[in-house]
Amino acid sequence: MKKALVTGGCGGIGEAICKKLANDGYYIYINYAHSKDKAEKLAAETGGTALCFDVSDNEAVRSAINEIGRPDLLVNNAGISEIDLFTSISPEKADRILNINLRGAMNCARAVLPEMIRAKCGNIINISSMWGQCGASCEVDYSASKAGLIGFTKALAKEVAPSGIRVNCIAPGFIMTEMNKRFSEEELELIREEIPLGIFGTPMHVAEAVAFMASDRAEYITGQILAVNGGMVI
Ligand code: NAP
C-alpha cells in the first residue's frame, strides 16, 4: 500500500486531501500541530495515523519522519495566514508565517528525500496560493512565503528529477475553510464577484488536483504550478 504524509492534514483543505487520497488507496499519515481530536477522528475514519509535529521544528520533523519511514507522497499543506500591513505586523508573526509556510515545507521535503532518492521514486506536492503568484496587499509575508514555495517547487523539481522524483505545486484561489472565516458576508460577496466562475472553491476542488498530480496520470509532469482558482488569477 502506498503511503502519503499530509501536513496540516485535518484542516479544511488537508482533510479533503486525506479523504481523497485514502479513497484512492493510500495509507495516510495525518500531521497536525494542535488539533489532536480532529486528527484522531480523521485517522479513524480513513484508517490512517495521526502524527503530531510542528513543521517549523526541523528536529521534530526529522524524528517523526524517521518513525514512519519513506512516504511515497508528501503533501506540504500546513500553513497559516495573517492580515496586517507589512509595516505593522510583528517580527514574531512575520517569522512564524515564513517558518511554517516555507521552511516547514522545506524541512519536510529534506527529511523525506534521502529515502526517496535511494528508492528512486517519490512525489512531493506543495500547496501554495494564488497570492504567491500575484501578491496580496496586507498579506505580504504570506504572499512571499507562498511565492517562495513556487520557486522551491521549480528548483527542487530540477534537482531530483534524475532520481525519479516529481515535485509539483497547487495554487488554490479562494477556498471556503476556517482560514477565510474572518471575512464578513459583505466582504465575501465582493470577493465572489471577482471570481470569473462566480463561486468559491471547495476543499475538494484542491483535493482533486492533488490526487491528479499524485497519480500516474501526471507521470510526465514536474516543476509545475496548477492553479485551482475559478479563473481569479490567470
Ligand atoms: P486551515 O483550515 O486553517 O488549516 C491549516 C492547517 O495547517 C491546520 O491543519 C493546522 O493544524 C496546520 N498547521 C498550522 N501550523 C502548523 C504547524 N506549525 N505544523 C503543522 N501543521 C500546522 O487552512 P486551509 O484553508 O485548509 O489551508 C491549507 C493550506 O492551503 C495552507 O497552506 C493555506 O495557505 C493554503 N491555501 C488556502 C486557501 C484558502 O482560501 N483556504 C487559499 C490558498 C492556499 P493544527 O490545527 O493542528 O494547528
Describe it.
With 234 residues, the protein is α/β, with parallel strands linked by helices. The chain contains eight helices and seven strands, in the order βαβαβαβαβααβααβ. It has helices at residues 12-23, 36-46, 58-68, 91-119, 130-134, 140-160, 185-193, 203-214; strands spanning 3-6, 27-32, 49-52, 73-76, 122-127, 165-172, 225-228. Strands 3-2-1-4-5-6-7 form a seven-stranded parallel sheet, with helices on both faces. α1 links the parallel β1 and β2 (27-32). α4 runs parallel beside α6. The longest helix is centred in the middle third of the chain and has 29 residues, at 91-119. The radius of gyration is 17 Å and the shape is globular. The model has no long low-confidence stretch (mean pLDDT 98). It binds NADP nicotinamide-adenine-dinucleotide phosphate. Residues 7-8, 10-14, 31-35, 54-56, 77-81, 100, 127, 129, 172, 174-175, 177-180 line the site of NADP nicotinamide-adenine-dinucleotide phosphate (NAP). Residues 7-8, 10-14, 31-35, 54-56, 77-81, 100, 127, 129, 172, 174-175, 177-180 line the site of NADP nicotinamide-adenine-dinucleotide phosphate.
Give a short summary of the structure.
By secondary structure, the chain is α/β, with parallel strands linked by helices.
